[in-house]
Amino acid sequence: MKNPLIIILLLLSNCLFAQTNKIDSLELLVDQKEGIEKVDLLTIISYKYWNISPDKGLVFGNLGLKEAISNNYPKGKAKSFNSIGINYWAKGEFETALSFYYKGLEISEKLDDGNLISAFINNIAMIHSRLKQYDKAIEYYKKANEIAISLKNVNDQIKYNNNIGSVFRRLGKYEEAKSYFLTNLELSEQQNDSYLIALSNHNIGLINLRQDNLNEAIKYFRKAFDMFMEISNLNYSSASAHNIGLIYLKQHKYPQALEFLKKAEQYAKESQSLENLYKIENDLSEYYVALDDYKTAFIYQDKYQTIKDSLFNQNNSKQIAEMHAKYEIEKKEIENKLLIKENDLQELEIEKQTNMRNTFIGISVLVILLIIVLFSRFWIKKKAILALSQKNRLIENQKEQLVITNENLTKQYDQIKLLNATKDKFFSIIAHDLKSPFNIILGYADLLSSEYDEFNDTERKKFISEISRSSKTTYILLENLLTWARIQIGQIKLKKEKLNLKELINLGIEPYTPNARKKNINIANTVSDEIIIEIDKHTLNTSIGNIVNNAIKFTHEGGQITIDAISDLNQIEISIKDSGVGMSQEQIQKLFRIEDSFSTKGTNNEKGTGLGLILCQEFIEKNGGKIKVESEIGKGSEFIISLPKNGFK
């Protein structure tokens, strides 16, 4: 039997390769286009990147927006806002995505473009649905549907009906959901669209399955399966066959259950749908458990777990692999330099020995000549002595060079040791701090999934709160890790601009004020309105925010955080002082060292990652500044940032 992990990796790589090839071919056309055509192409590329690389998608979306503005193309601006919005949605920055959708909606309303208006309203509804604001989601979906009805746009009606039905299904309002899916079935048959007819039957089958109307469910799933097979849609063929197999399994019709579960598995593999495949492998395991064939059940359970773990870890593994590859490249470069230096040392040693031998021969010849020619060749003796003196000076110079070379080799060796220690510590932080919150999330999620009705509302809210807290902790850790990695590989570029320091600090601390209010901590920004600094906005914002967040974490309820600044002709010194628990000198010495990074719980048991302050130091030093800490246990801490006033040093 083939290793299931190899099969998974092949499926993932084939899928990703095909997608990126298509996008690459589009990117090659960008320079060949101008004006409106270029705008439309850039927005298409941006949209296609949303589920592959949202950061790249944002780059192309912003290029499209710039072109649209320069070409006075309002519809292009709206399309660019849409593609930028979906990439922010993919990054999980929902509020930012909403702001771009609203900008696009405003332009669409001015253009009186009904199709664009309904599309933006639908996207806004999707954000609310993603945030579990289901009432708002249904409200916006219905608005989009009303516009589609007025425009007699049947395809959009079907799409919006499907979205509304899906929300009702998620809420457990199955009859309301079924009515929208039945309407879709009628509209799809009017359109004579095989795919939409099959999809509507599939959705109605799902509702009946949820309502335990198994005979009705299997009837709709069979229709969906047959039609999906006719149009060669293997992904949905797999999903429909999977549900048919599950129903037969519930009805203890084991031969029919195996037939359709195996079909589902086959079509999932052929369509490279790992999301379907890992669930099917789990249900095949359940099938063999029902037959008391535990050996085969274990094989399928192993496949299920392998695919699930692979899907869960592929993004993190990719980031770690890139960082590890960069480390190995740097390590090889240093090793090559060491080899070159060693060769140089050997050549110098050979040259030294040759010089000494030649010197001895020269002296011997001079002595013999002096004996033979006596005084008549006295001037040769003087010349030989002079030559000897020069060679001695050369040897001394070479000795000094050898000492310098040896010192450089020692420094490089120490650098390699530091790189190794840093890498080991960094990966140990990833392994420990990522695994713990994921264990919490998976543990509580499994409890809710398998024993939901066994708990009361208070217990369920507690579980959900723990899942939310652990997810936020994990997200902050990943953000810090990826930002640190981008610094190491030189992907963060600084853009200096003249900014009002007080406004910049307010912007940096704004995301953390809710946490301060929860602990009744007062944050006072006493920086003068007159101070202007030339700095990179993003990196200083991040640094100020991390330090203030750290201060909130270690300050008791009712405490005080004060931010002040002193400006002279060339330098600005920013002070962030809190009334918190303070630190020992030993803790201060470890704050900014990745190999000694540590994390302690806050006054309300808040957890951290230990990387935030390391990022602060990286950013501040990249801006030409320095950071230091003054603290005593029980007396609070003061972080002092010194920055050049006019640009980088």
Explain what the structure shows.
This protein is 74% helix and 7% strand. The chain is an alpha+beta fold and 649 residues long. Among the domains are: 320-448; 496-644, 2-Layer Sandwich (Heat Shock Protein 90). The chain has a 5-stranded mixed β-sheet. A two-stranded antiparallel ribbon has the order 1-3. A hairpin with a 3-residue loop joins strand 4 (560-567) and strand 5. The longest helix is centred in the middle third of the chain and has 80 residues, at 294-373. Mean pLDDT is 82; it is low at 1-18 and 317-333.
Q: What is the end-to-end distance? A: 62 Å
Return the structural class.
Answer: alpha+beta
Summed over residues and divided by their number, the pLDDT gives a mean of 82
Query: What can be said about the biggest beta sheet?
Result: 5 strands, mixed
CATH homologous superfamily name of the domain at 496-644?
A: Histidine kinase-like ATPase, C-terminal domain
Q: What's this entry about, in short?
A:
The protein has helices at residues 4-27, 35-48, 54-70, 74-90, 94-111, 114-130, 134-150, 154-170, 174-191, 194-210, 214-230, 234-250, 254-270, 274-290, 294-373, 378-451, 457-488, 501-509, 513-518, 537-553, 585-590, 612-622, and strands at residues 496-500, 522-525, 532-536, 560-567, 571-578, 626-631, 637-644.
